[in-house]
Amino acid sequence: MVSELHERVFDPVVKDVLDLIDHQLQQTHCEAIFLVGGFGSSRYLFDRVTATFATSGRQVRVPPRAELAVVRGAVTYGLHQGSIISRVARRWYGVDSAMDFVPGVDPEEKKTLSRDGTVRCKDRFSVYITPGQSVALGECVTKKYMTWCYPRPLDCPLYVSDSEQEPRYVDEPS
Predict the structure, then answer these.
(1) Higher pLDDT, 58 or 96
(2) Radius of gyration of the CA atoms of the chain, in A
(3) Fewest 10 Å CB contacts: which of 64, 65, 87, 166?
(4) For residue 35, which phi and psi values (nearest 5 degrees)?
(5) Number of domains within the chain
(6) Residue 28 above 70 pLDDT?
(7) Helix 43-53, helix 11-27: angle, nearest 10
């Protein structure tokens, strides 16, 4: 009965948690996994995470009062905001830019002619921040671009991609 309950209720959620942990581990080097929060203190989750990830030498730990760890962390952050000096990006961040057209690489439907007569590729993903890049708190990441729209306002949305490889176009799936 208990085993059947685990399979029907907990296993789908635990599988999602294991998939999320695996995805995170593929993006960075990690020697320990801390399970926190209410579900993080579950013995069943601990056993499954340990069975899946401790085989590669990683430690899996549950801190005392795991159910309060998230709240305590939020309070500590609120009281000591200066303790975080940088953040590490987990995704690609960039903007839409018309870059040089590369025959044989860029599709013909993205080929466009700019006002200065150069052949460009529209919808290119111009990278601002790469996964793993550290950005200091308050740091401004800038790039210079030339626009033909001046003095009209320019709409410049920020694009985010979870792609493993550097995205080439802003409209490709991430």
Answers:
(1) 96
(2) 23
(3) 64
(4) -100, 120
(5) 2
(6) yes
(7) 40
